[in-house]
Design goal:
alpha/beta, D-Maltodextrin-Binding Protein, domain 2, 431 residues, globular, 2 domains, 9-stranded mixed sheet, two-stranded antiparallel sheet
Length: 431
């Protein structure tokens, strides 16, 4: 989800766009609800696409859609003020399920959509992938509809693998470790592996390693488990791979732009990252190695290949809205199969299984990336960070052992320290 932040387009100023047919008034309908649906969206390519299609929806329904479009920080600020005050002047809201979803649901900002998602068989809620649905549910009930997804995959250099005598990308984490070390030793100035190293930014990408070793941030009862045997192995593996096969003098504050730059400048053989960033690696204008980039499913660990499969953005209905019925009509249209396919074709990865199965929906993606995504969505985990209210604080805690491991410190001891701090955090949050 945080990688989407950097794909946001537009200015940081609020842009209010009122679009509608002049024949559509703002008066009520037979249900007493307003015929103007007020929708708050983030600056994103998904938003630009939906704005272009709006006249079709307004013509079909006789409703008028009023869009407030904001930069991500401003969006959060507005939600903090308006939702906390119980304001009814937002009907539909675009939000980040893994960053603020639990907070919004816990505070009853998001309406329960259980009845709505079952109301139209043609819309087909069962078409949405399990991981994103899990992330947009609260206490087993859907409170949002995922609109944009991402998964973690393995980026690799085809030419470097060929020079090293490797006929295929690694299928397991053990194979990745061996291949990365071999390429680094054989290719001076080139790292075998690169990934995020910053304490907070690395958490989301480390999560797939954690799951593939058989761990998670918490157990089924909600207790901290970042010092389980599986977690300790994952921390040691991730940090050790970067320390031993990563770039020389690697920093411990890299997020995706810095790690991606190392890969696209031809300075690394392997890179694990969100699929949503693939064009940075395959666009010749951005990448020196565009012609030699390949994609593969996330390598399997002791527990198999368990990458995250998450929704970075979703649509929900403000529970204080007086216009819930028409708000749902907008969401139903915007997340329907037709609009979802159009978004997918424009490069916005969807949570619907049908568009990935449709050749038209994958025609613009590299074939091996489509195969990697298919594998990720099949066994993917629906979160890439702790599912808590204060996400930023939690990431700082569980990310510390990553930094310590990269620096050559005792990963197991760091995990024990982090687990104690994380459990206290969870206990405090539960009060």
């Amino acid at each position: 989800m945080d990688v989407r932040r950097r794909s946001i387009i537009g200015t940081s100023l609020a842009v209010v766009v009122a679009m509608g047919l002049s024949a559509c008034g703002g008066g009520g309908d037979d249900s007493g609800e307003s015929k103007t649906v007020r929708v708050t969206l983030a600056n994103h390519v998904w938003t630009e696409n939906i704005k272009q299609a709006l006249p079709e929806f307004e013509k079909q329904t006789g409703l008028k859609v009023e869009i407030t479009q904001l930069g991500e920080d401003q969006l959060s600020d507005q939600y903090n003020v308006k939702l906390n005050a119980g304001s009814s002047d937002i009907d539909v809201m675009m939000y980040r399920p893994l960053q603020e979803g639990k907070l919004f649901a816990k505070n009853k900002y998001l309406a329960d959509l259980s009845d709505q998602v079952k109301s139209n068989k043609d819309w087909d809620f069962s078409d949405f992938q399990a991981g994103p649905v899990e992330a947009t549910s609260y206490q087993g009930k859907p409170v949002g509809v995922p609109i944009i997804t991402e998964q973690e995959v393995l980026y690799y250099r085809k030419d470097l693998l060929a020079k090293a005598g490797l006929s295929a990308p690694p299928k397991t984490l053990d194979e990745l470790k061996v291949a990365a070390a071999k390429i680094k030793a054989a290719t001076p100035g080139t790292a075998g592996f690169v990934a995020r190293t910053g304490k907070s930014p690395a958490v989301t990408q480390f999560s797939s390693f954690l799951y593939s070793f058989g761990g998670d941030f918490v157990d089924g009862s909600g207790k901290a488990t970042v010092n389980s045997d599986a977690a300790k192995q994952a921390y040691a593996y991730y940090g050790g791979l970067i320390k031993d096969s990563g770039p020389a003098n690697v920093s411990t504050d890299m997020s995706w732009p810095e790690a991606m730059a190392i890969f696209t400048q031809g300075k690394a053989a392997f890179y694990t990252e969100a699929d949503s960033l693939y064009k940075n690696a395959t666009d010749p204008a951005k990448s020196k190695v565009a012609d030699n980039v390949g994609f593969a499913p996330f390598p399997a660990g002791p527990a198999g290949s368990k990458p995250y499969n998450i929704p970075s953005w979703a649509l929900g209905v403000n529970d204080s809205s007086q216009n819930k019925s028409n708000a749902w009509k907008f969401i139903e249209w915007a997340t329907g199969k037709q609009q979802t396919l159009a978004q997918q074709k424009s490069g916005v990865p969807s949570a619907r299984s049908s568009v990935w199965a449709n050749p038209e929906g994958t025609a613009t993606y590299p074939k091996d990336l489509v195969e990697a995504i298919a594998a990720s969505t099949k066994d993917g985990v629906g979160h890439d960070r702790p599912l808590v209210v204060k996400v930023a604080q939690a990431r700082e805690i569980v990310g510390q052992p990553i930094v310590d491991s990269i620096a050559g410190k005792d990963a197991a001891a760091a995990a024990d320290t982090a687990n104690t701090a994380f459990q206290k955090f969870l206990d405090d949050e539960a009060k």
